[in-house]
Amino acid sequence: MNNKYRFLRRDSYVVDLGSAPGGFAAAVAKTVKLDDRARRWDQEGKRLVKRRITGRRRSRPFGKLVCVDVVDMAEIGGASFIRGSLMDDDVEHRIGYALNGDEADVVLCDAAPSTTGNSEMDHIRCVDMAKAGLGVANAVLRNGGVFVVKVFRVRKKRNWLRL
Ligand SMILES: C[S@@+](CC[C@H](N)C(=O)[O-])C[C@H]1O[C@@H](n2cnc3c(N)ncnc32)[C@H](O)[C@@H]1O
């Protein structure tokens, strides 16, 4: 997808919601240059000190990748992992802390609830998750940042297009 839309740069700050087992994150780490001297796995959230980025930002030596999931995933050097739900009240603060108070350039959301077998119900739960992801993206993305969300469609359902 990045080959087509070019939303990732080598210094991008990326948040990956629903990151386990790590397929998207591994793909991001191929483009975004992470500082793997920093070990930030399983860090605990602290208070967010939010710095607004105004105008066009200067290029940075490294990007950042913050992964969020309710289950563990394999470690990716230089990335942060927050074990928790994207629906947790403090998730935005924990992401902000992992980004050192900076804003994200890109938020990916592939979080999906476990399926029930009822496709209508699964679709509704999936859209709810996507909406929660959009809420997180609104809080942590910079102006002009990119939100990418994956939602499974079920027959005749188009309401996910109106997030
Ligand atoms: C389709 S998998 C993601 C695959 C991942 N993007 C990859 O490329 O490897 C969906 C993930 O969403 C996670 N998930 C489900 N509910 C979640 C929630 N409330 N908050 C964060 N992650 C959640 C699941 O644990 C699961 O790992």
Automatic annotation (TrEMBL):
Keywords (A to Z) from UniProt: Methyltransferase, rRNA processing, S-adenosyl-L-methionine, Transferase
Domain of life: Eukaryota
Pfam families: FtsJ
Domain Ribosomal RNA methyltransferase FtsJ: 1-158
SUPFAM superfamilies linked: S-adenosyl-L-methionine-dependent methyltransferases (SSF53335)
GO molecular-function terms, A-Z: RNA methyltransferase activity
A GO biological-process term: rRNA processing
Signal sequence, renumbered to the chain: none
InterPro entries: RNA_methyltr_RlmE, RNA_MeTrfase_FtsJ_dom, SAM-dependent_MTases_sf
PANTHER family: PRE-RRNA 2'-O-RIBOSE RNA METHYLTRANSFERASE FTSJ3, RIBOSOMAL RNA METHYLTRANSFERASE
Name of protein: Ribosomal RNA large subunit methyltransferase E
Organism of this sequence: Gracilariopsis chorda
